[in-house]
Design a protein that fits this description.
112 residues; globular; 3-stranded mixed beta sheet; 2 helices; alpha+beta; 19% helix
């Protein structure tokens, strides 16, 4: 399986890359300990991937997006979809993770 992205997530990544003037930045996603459910997601733009990262490439109207996931995080994110939601109360990236058995109400942390 792989990690996928919705069109809304791709549009948001391209918007941030343009605003930061970093067109070649790589989207790094992962999991770390913390949050109210035990594990939390993180999303960042970085200049380059690490040597052991799993890389995924996505086409978008504004160009190619490279997504990097470290090996440990990939165990928790395999099969997940990265989305971007914009709403009145909360805007941000959301993970739709089929491996998560429970998530907090904010959607930033989860339990397996």
């Amino acid at each position: 399986m792989a990690v996928s992205m919705t069109d809304a997530a791709k549009e948001r990544v391209n918007s941030v890359k343009k605003r930061r003037q970093t067109p070649d930045a790589i989207l790094r996603v992962g999991v770390r300990g913390g949050g109210c459910s035990g594990l939390e997601y993180y999303v960042d733009l970085v200049p380059e991937a690490q040597p052991k990262d799993k890389l995924f490439e996505f086409d978008s109207p504004q160009g190619k997006i490279v997504l990097a996931v470290d090996r440990k995080s990939y165990l928790f994110l395999n099969g997940s979809e990265l989305d971007f939601k914009k709403g009145m109360m909360h805007s941000g990236f959301e993970f739709h993770n089929p491996l998560a058995s429970r998530s907090c109400s904010c959607g930033d942390s989860f339990t397996l």
